[in-house]
Amino acid sequence: MEISSAIPYPTIGAVICWYSSNIGVLLFNKYLLSNYGFAYPVFLTLCHMTACSFFSYVAVYFMSVVPFQTIKSKSQLMKIVGLSVVFCFSVVCGNISLKYIPVSFNQAIGATTPFFTAIFAYLVNRKREAWVTYGTLVPVVAGVVIASGSEPSFHLFGFLICVSATAARAFKSVLQGVLLSSEGEKLNSMNLLMYMAPIAMVVLLPATLLMEQDVIWITVNLARNDVRIVWLLLFSSSLSYFVNLTNFLVTKCTSALTLQVLGNAKGAVAVVVSILVFKNPISTVGMMGYALTVIGVLLYGEAKKRYTQASETRTGY
After folding, report:
1. pLDDT tens for each residue of 175-190
2. Residue 137 CB: number of other CB atoms within 10 A?
3. Which structural domain range is residue 156 located in?
4. Mean pLDDT for the chain overall
5. How many structural domains comprise the chain?
């Protein structure tokens, strides 16, 4: 292969950092919430949003990683607030689910995001896909059903809350496309995170005080006996920001289709790594179910690409 046709090193580096930060934050959250026994997912999410607020402001406003974009109207602000609430809900539910189910099962459920995206795209803006596209969602859902039925560590509440997190992520992506679709209101992902994270903090603070009373004092007392908790929280919170940063960099360096393929592969890598780290039991049937889901997601992406190309050809674009 000629050097000119090789994948650029910055792109390879961005993908490696994206994989590492994404899988890392999953493993750290699982360790904190389950293995370590720090059972406070709402407070953990608050820590993550605090870190995202700080790092986003520094990256955008001081380091000029991306051009600074201002909020231009009260209407735009209210839309961002709405997105922040949905974003909060998805992250909190995702963290809560890690208390009850393994990372591998969490990722299997998360792979069904295209299924919920297709549903919300139709409900919100009546966007229809080709029937073959909807057909590819059958193995996506079937794979999770198979994996759920044979999951040795299945927990009903953990399963339901993880499904809620997955649905909320899909709803946020659809809602973001609708609410911030006009040219005057579009924000790149880094600026959007900079505005959403502080709003999420405002939402999460009273929720933490209400749902996890005395968690701050408990954390302080815990830190006196084991200072590792401070470093674990700081590292996990920092990783939560770098997941967003590296996702933006990979998006910038690759195409939407490449990003989707890389995302599917990332989920598979996360499953393998989590099993090696936590040694949670997993059945052969469960692995086959997850593989079926990944295959369905790949088919869904290919079907959507072909449908989009066919539509563009018919309309002459």
Report:
1. 888 877 777 788 888 9
2. 22
3. 3-315
4. 86
5. 1
